[in-house]
Specification:
By secondary structure, the chain is an alpha+beta fold. 18% of the residues lie in helices and 29% in strands.
């Protein structure tokens, strides 16, 4: 009788693990297909996402907490330091009405009172929605807490148009004239990222436990119970 009961338990565990693994695989992020990224610094690198130096969006290379990044200085050194612009490759997103996520890794300094994201949208906002942001009801504005650490913030985009209408770009970050900001890495995704996004893991997802190893661990724990 005992053997039959534990066999049933193990079979249920296997089914649950395979089901959860299958769900994970169905949602597996694929670079260049459902997410893109850029790593900023004096020499930026990325996949289908670029930071654009232009007009009112001139940045400076910087370092915070031993991390190379880009800075929007404050006070503004002329009109060029207002924003930090980004271009999404048209082969990834262009036109339509998209739900997307913009993940921003920023240095959490109280030198900036706020950080806003403005994006090319199908909704309400300046220039026919080309600069929609927190001020237009897209999402709450980010207020840094002053931890002096690198942190991650996720902007949820519900009406993305991304037709390069934001002065030739698709979105931009700004303190709206209320202090400097420092940005390290940025991701754009068409699948939902984890809430506890880990920037040092593939697309923020902690390494998945191998189902067979997990099963062996579970079986080891089950054997500890008395018969």
């Amino acid at each position: 009788m005992y053997r039959i009961q534990w066999t049933t338990v193990i079979m249920v565990l296997i089914q649950c693990l395979l089901l959860s693994f299958g769900v994970f695989a169905a949602e597996e992020p694929v670079e260049g297909e459902n997410f893109i990224w850029v790593d900023l610094g004096e020499e930026s690198d990325g996949v289908l996402l670029t930071q654009s130096e232009q007009g009112d969006g001139i940045t400076e290379p910087a370092e915070q907490d031993n991390v190379d990044c880009l800075e929007n200085p404050w006070p503004y050194n002329g009109p060029g330091h207002n924003h930090m612009y980004f271009k999404i490759d048209d082969s990834f997103l262009f036109g339509g009405n998209h739900k997307a996520w913009i993940v921003m890794e920023y240095f959490d300094s109280n030198k900036a009172e706020q950080i806003n994201c403005q994006y090319d949208s199908n909704g309400a906002g300046p220039v026919g929605g080309a600069f929609r942001g927190a001020g237009d009801g897209a999402f709450p504005i980010l207020k840094p807490e002053g931890t002096d650490k690198w942190r991650v913030h996720i902007w949820v985009i519900k009406d993305g148009r991304f037709e390069n209408r934001a002065n030739g770009s698709d979105f931009r970050f700004s303190s709206n004239g209320k202090g400097p900001i420092w940005i390290n890495r940025v991701w754009v995704s068409t699948i939902e990222p984890p809430e506890d996004f880990d920037p040092d893991s593939p697309f923020g997802i902690p390494q998945a436990v191998d189902p067979i190893s997990k099963l062996a661990t579970t079986w080891g724990k089950l054997k500890e119970f008395p018969k």
